[in-house]
Amino acid sequence: MERMNAGLNHNWYALYVKSRHEFIAQAELIHKGINNFLPSARKLSQWKDRKKNIEFPLFPGYLFVFIQAYTEDYLKVLKTRGVVNLLSLEPGAPTPIPQEEIDSLRILIESGQNIDIFPQLKEGARVRVKKGPLSGAIGTVVERDEQHLFVVNIDILGRSVGVKIYADDIEVD
């Protein structure tokens, strides 16, 4: 695994791009010589007439760039087709992402394991099911046997019912 040299004041930054422009922005950044990382995975997609393995971004609307803030590269990134902005916790200053997070993400992707995307789930978090047969249901997330369960509580009865659920079927309520 390639580890970037952060000694030159270069950092990883999250780049927000227009909807469905992740691969377009990545190709343009590569053409401009900007080091970037678009975490993606393959998934079987089914249409009415066929099935096909497609590459999809793990974080739709985002990719990562390794640049020095407020330099020529910074401007090149912002002028790239499809790019909206660099993410920041404070207005006007892009927020660096720790190298360890990028390294861990690369390890996870390169492992070849099936990847499931989780909103920042914490046990007990209130969530809403956004697709599938449970669409519209509101409940909580419980972790049992290393799996996430969607649980509906009936407080007055002191009872709960739960089902296994895929993380991309839910959103934080």
Fraction of helical residues: 10-25%
Task: Indicate the mean pLDDT.
Answer: 85
Give Rg in angstroms.
19 Å
Strand content: 35-45%
| CATH homologous superfamily classification of the largest domain | NusG, N-terminal domain
What sort of overall outline do the alpha carbons produce when their principal axes are compared?
globular
**Which residues sit in consecutive blocks of at least 5 with pLDDT less than 50?**
1-7
Number of strands: 12
Quick overview:
By secondary structure, the protein is of the alpha+beta class. Helix content is 17%, strand content 36%.
Report on this structure:
This protein has 173 residues and is of the alpha+beta class. The chain has two domains: 6-110, NusG, N-terminal domain (Alpha-Beta Plaits); 126-172, SH3 type barrels. Helices cover 17% and strands 36% of the residues. The protein contains three helices and twelve strands. The chain has helices at residues 22-31, 72-78, 99-110, and strands spanning 11-17, 36-37, 40-46, 51-57, 62-67, 83-86, 96-97, 126-129, 138-144, 147-154, 159-164, 170-172. The strands form three sheets. Strands 1, 2, 5, 6 and 7 form a five-stranded antiparallel beta sheet that branches. The protein starts with 10 loop residues before the first strand and ends with a strand. 14% of the residues are buried.
